[in-house]
Amino acid sequence: MTDVVEVTPKPPQKIGQEKCTRVANSGVLTIENLSSRPRDLGRYASLKIKMMRSFLLSLVAAFLASAPHAGDAADGIFDIPPGFTAEATTQKLREALADASIARIRFQDGQQYKLLPFKIDRPVLLEGRAEIVPADLTQPLIEVTAPDVAIKQLTFLGRDKQSDKSSFRRFLRVRKHSHRFRLSECTFRNFACRYQTTQFYCVEVELNDVLDWVITDCRFEDMQNEVDGVAYKKALADYKAWKDAGRPQPEKMLPRKPGFVGAIRVSHSGQYFGEKSSSGRITQCVFKNIYSSRRSGQSVDQFPGDWYDGDAIRIYVDRKVPAAHSNQSVDKEVAVAIHSCKFIDIQKSAVKAGEIGRTTISNCRVFNKRSDYPMMAGFRANITRGLRITSCEVHGRAERGVYIGSGGSAFIRGLVFLPYETLPDGSEEKCGIAGVELGRGSYRADRIAISGLYVSHADSAVNCVNCSNVSIDSVTLIEGGPVVALGSRADKKSIRLPKQAQSLLP
Fold first, then answer.
1. What are 316's strand-pairing partners?
2. Which pLDDT belongs to residue 302?
3. Which domain of life is it from (predicted)?
4. pTM (two decimals)
5. I need a surface site. Which of 107, 148, 226, 362 has the fewest CB within 10 A?
6. Exposure string for 371-409, b = 16+ CB within 10 A, e = fewer
7. Last-in-domain residue among 147, 170, 202
8. Nearest CA-CA partner of 390 in 377, 398, 381, 379
9. Residue 27 lies in a domain
10. Which residues contact 289 (CB under 8 A, 6 or more apart)?
11. Within its chain, how far is the Cα of 403 from the centroid?
12. pLDDT beyond 80 at 431
C-alpha cells in the first residue's frame, strides 16, 4: 500500500493558497490546488514536466544498466562485440579469459571475427554461431592448456575471400592436462596450404595425459595441400636430370613426403613414454574433401614418388621404427574411440593408427566418389595392437577396406567393402585389391581375427601378404577371387578357417 503524505506549505506570500501531495517512493510532485494567478500556473506545470522526465530517464538508465552489453560481463557471460580489428577483438577476448568470474564467452551469431593466436589456461566455454578467421597464419590459433574447456558451434575458416594460401599449421592444439576438453557442433573448412608446409591439422590432441576429451558433431571439409610449389619444381627437375642420366633410383631425388594434410591428429610433442596415456572420443563427425593436389586442382597420385598424403584422422607415435622389431608393438596405448562418423572423398585413408594401441572404430562409413585417385584403404594401421573395427563400410574407389601393414592384435567384424556404383552381375571390373590386406614386404601382421566380412568385386576378400595367427570366419566375396589369397611370406599353418571353409585356402 502506498502512503500519501499531505504537505501544507507556509501561509502564501506571492503564490497564494495552495496544497501539495507527494507520492512516497516515486519522486513525483503533484500539484492539487494552484493559485488562480495565471503567471504562476505555467511555472508549476513546467516543474511537473521536468520531474516526470527525470523519473522516466532514471528508469531507462536503470534498465540499461541491468542488461548485458557487448564486451561487458553479466552473470558470468561475456559477449565479444564484432566489427573491430583482429588486435582489438583478440585483446577483448584475452581480457575475458583473464577474468576468472567469466564462465562463458559468446561470439555473436552471424558475425565474422578475425583473431590473433590466444591461449586458454582456465575452464571456460567459447560459443556462438559465428565465423572465426585466423589473422596470423604462422602459429596455432588456439592453444588449450587447462581442463574443462569447451568450444561450441563456431565455424573456423582457413581463409576468407581476400586471403591467399599460407603455411598455417593448425587451428587448435590441446596440450597435456587439458582433461575433459570438449569440441562440439563446430565446422572447420576452406583451407589450402602451400607445399612448403610439412603438415597441417585442424585439431591436434596431445597423446599424453589428456583424459576424457570429446570431439562430437563437428564437420571438417575442403582441405588441400598444394604440392607443386617452388620446392616441388626443383625436386622434379633434379629427378628428371638424374633419370635422364641413367642413374639408379631417381625417385630418391624427390622429397619423401609432400606434407600431410588432415583434420584431427592425436600424437605427441617430445617424449611419449613414462606418462599417462590420453583417452578420448570422436563421434558423429563428417570429414569431406581432404587431399593433396597440384595447383591445377588435380590429384598427384600419378607423380613419381610418394606425393600424396591426406588422412582424416591420424593417431600415432611419430618415430622411425627399425626393421628389427617389425613384428613388435610399441608400448604406448591411447584409448581413442571413433564412432558413427562419415568420411567422403578422403585421399589416402579415413583413419590411420600407427605404433599405438587401443584404437576402436565402429559404425563408420567411407565414400570415395572422386575419379582422379583411389584411396589406399578405408582404415589402415601399422605396428598397432588392440585395434578393433566393427560394423563399418567402405564404398567407392578404394584399393582396400582395411590395411594392417604390421603388428597386432586386431579384431575386424562386420566390414562391408563395395564399389560406390553398383556393378552388374558377372562384371570383371575390380573395385580394389582386397577387403582386408595383412602385412607388407618383411613386415608381418600377427594375431588377427576377421568375422562377418562382405566384399564385392575385389581381387580377394582377405589378402595375406605376410601374416600369422589369423582367424577368418563368415566371409562373402561377390565377383572376385580367391576368397583368401596367400603371399609367399604368409604362415599358412597358422591361418584358421572353419572346417567347412578349409577348401577356400589355395
1. 354
2. 47
3. Bacteria
4. 0.77
5. 148
6. eebbbbbbbbbbbbbbbbbbbbbbbbbbbbbbbbbbbbb
7. 147
8. 379
9. yes
10. 221, 222, 223, 224, 344, 345
11. 24
12. no
Closest CA to 78 of 63, 93, 67: 93
- Work out the pLDDT band at 377, boundaries 50, 70, 90: very high
Q: Do 21 and 5 touch, CB atoms closer than 8 A?
A: yes
Q: What percent of the chain lies above the pLDDT cut of 90?
A: 40
Amino acid in position 265: R
pLDDT of residue 17: 44
Residue 472 domain-assigned (yes or no): no
The answer to whether position 383 is within a domain reads: no
Per-residue pLDDT reduced to its tens digit, 102-125: 999 999 999 999 999 999 999 999
User: Amino acid identity, residue 413?
Assistant: R
Total domains, the chain: 2
Strands (E), 250-399: 260-267, 279-283, 286-293, 310-316, 333-339, 342-346, 349-354, 357-362, 365-368, 379-382, 387-390, 393-396
C-alpha cell at 356: 599405438
- Up-side HSE of residue 311: CA atoms within 13 Å toward CB? 23
Q: What's the pLDDT tens digit per position in 167-185?
A: 566 789 999 999 999 999 9
Alpha-carbon distance 114 to 98, whole Å?
Answer: 20
Distance CA 397, CA 487 (A): 24
Domain endpoint, select from 147, 180, 204: 147
